[in-house]
Amino acid sequence: MLRRLLAVLACCLLTPALAQSLMLGTKLELNTLDPHFFAAFPTGSSHEYLYDKLVVLDDKLKAQPSLAQSWKLVDNLTWEFKLRKGVMFHDGSPFTADDVLFTVERVPNVPNSPNSFSQYTRGIEKITKVDDHTIVVRTKEPNPQLPNDFSNVWIISAKAAKGATTADFNSGKAAIGTGPYRLVEWVNGERLVVERNDKYWGPKPHWAKVTERVIAKDPTRLAALLSGQVDAIDAVPIPDLERLRKEGRFALYRGAAALVHYIALDSARDVSPFVTAKDGKPLAANPLKDPRVRKALSLAINRDALVKRVMEGSGIPAGQLLSAEFPGSSKAIKPDPFDAARAQALLKEAGWGDGFRIVLHATADRYPNDGSLAQAIAQMWTRIGLKAEVETLPGSVFFTRASKQEFSAFAAQYGAEEASNSLRALVATFTPSKGFGTANRTRYSNPVVDSLLEESNRTMDDELRQEKLTRAINFAMSDTPLIPVFYPIFDFASKKDLSITPRAQRRFNAMMVLPKGK
Question: CATH class for domain 259-489?
């Protein structure tokens, strides 16, 4: 009898602790703990455990205080930021202005970054420390988006990260932030384990311990949820949504994301490596340099069919880089309609009526149905007279090759919290000194687009800036620098007693997951 009572008591004592642990299964493969190495979805999602920013964005993607309690515009080139007092890094050292200055200095100097955070700091001419909790930022040109830019930059410890390399962060040695969780373990491509930071300056996180398991393959991730190995998953395989609804043991959640699934086209080079004659022989010219050809490829895509059949409703046809519901987007642009006849006419007008061979590269493990989408788009291009082929690659290989401009056409996704950021990263001419074109992996360049974008970026009046940004977006998209295909809607699933709050950014972490009723 006593033994049974002790067992019951032990069970009762253990239950709260167990309830405070959360196991997530995610498709987002975190490849570094260096918060300034790679501006990408996995880092944006998982680094939120360890690090904080000066500014965060709310559900409407509006800037809100974080490590910066307030900010004000002193003149068109000068901002003053008041920093939060009483904030401690995980090692017990205080957060001060020195850490901000150190962070901004480090951002553009991280070697081999595939997508640098320098796009958010290049406009800064100088940062001055007024006192431990006040900084003054002077920009090279008027920059109304500076608070939003800071919402993309994780603040690190000048003490812990002095002289630190990306390898030092990955080992955990320098991975010390002010965030709501502390690092316990990270195994590249496998898992991230964190524990609650009980001295966190903000609202205390619900979960005492969180484990993120990287489960890239959709069937395996779903099986982990069904078997109880994980409590929640992201990127629910689209064909399995109905099955989960019928199961009754799980809760489903979905939300539109501030990102676009797009096709990049090699329009910069005279000869492109994966564009040839149909028989494989070299071409005298690169057809993708002609905007009529690029427009034809866009018109050949039946976006409604892709969203309905391949994505089974988990997407919205796209005509620009960010949906019109998000800040800064053009209200005038509509998705290109499916028009095979006009596409063929444009090819003929451009001198390519007989078509050509083109290879579309895509990931096979990065986005929901990424391989199937590429195959469907290639089939649509084939119907207008091209010989379209598909090659899919693991994400780690794909982005390395794309960054080296090894492809002629490739499919990817890009997210931004404001329309000018997408245009600046994907379409603006690759100019590291300005932080332009950081994700422009085809080296598309149009000086008119650059000029219009720069003009809008330095306009401080909100209404006038939006007018100029709209003009820049409209002009850019009329040249078809790339092909927007659709805006993804992401699906999540959890055990019945949990709730998930989707976010506009591509995120999946413990801050989005709570017991129902919390």
Answer: alpha beta
Is residue 60 predicted with pLDDT exceeding 80?
Answer: no
Strand 259-265 relative to strand 250-256, pairing: unpaired
Task: Find out whether 47 and 154 touch, Cβ atoms under 8 Å.
Answer: yes
- CA–CA gap between residue 62 and residue 82 (Å, rounded): 18
Summarize pLDDT for 476-502 with one digit per residue, the tens.
999 999 999 999 998 999 999 999 999
Task: Provide the β-strand partners of residue 348.
Answer: none
**Residues 209, 185 contacting (CB under 8 angstroms):** no
What is the H or E stretch that residue 70 is in? strand 68-75
Q: Rounded CA gap, 192 and 202, in Å?
A: 22
Long-range Cβ contacts of 45-48 (<8 Å, 24+ apart)? 45/505, 45/506, 45/507, 45/508, 45/509, 46/192, 46/212, 46/509, 47/154, 47/179, 48/179, 48/507, 48/509, 48/511
In 188-300, DSSP assigns E strands to 191-196, 209-214, 232-233, 250-256, 259-265, 275-276
Do 425 and 440 contact (CB within 8 A), yes or no? yes
Q: Rounded CA gap, 303 and 58, in Å? A: 30
464: left (phi over 0), alpha (psi -120 to 50) or beta: alpha
CATH class of 21-214: alpha beta
Give the Cα separation of 500 and 36 in Å (integer): 28
Q: Is 232 helix (H, G, I), strand (E, B) or coil?
A: strand
In sequence order, the β-bridge partners of residue 490 are: 255
Per-residue pLDDT for 4 more than 60?
A: no
pLDDT tens per residue, range 78-94: 999 999 999 999 999 99
Q: Are 136 and 128 in contact (CB under 8 A)?
A: yes
pTM, full prediction: 0.79
| The two structure tokens encoding residue 186 | 């990270």
Domain spans of the chain?
Answer: 21-214, 259-489
Sheet of 124-131, strand order = 68-75, 78-83, 134-139, 124-131
- pLDDT at residue 433 tops 90: no
Q: What's the CA gap between 471 and 281, in Å, rounded?
A: 41
Q: Give the list of residues 6+ apart from residue 514 with CB closer than 8 angstroms, or none.
A: 206, 498, 499, 501
Q: Are 333 and 473 in contact (CB under 8 A)?
A: yes
User: Rounded mean pLDDT of the chain?
Assistant: 93
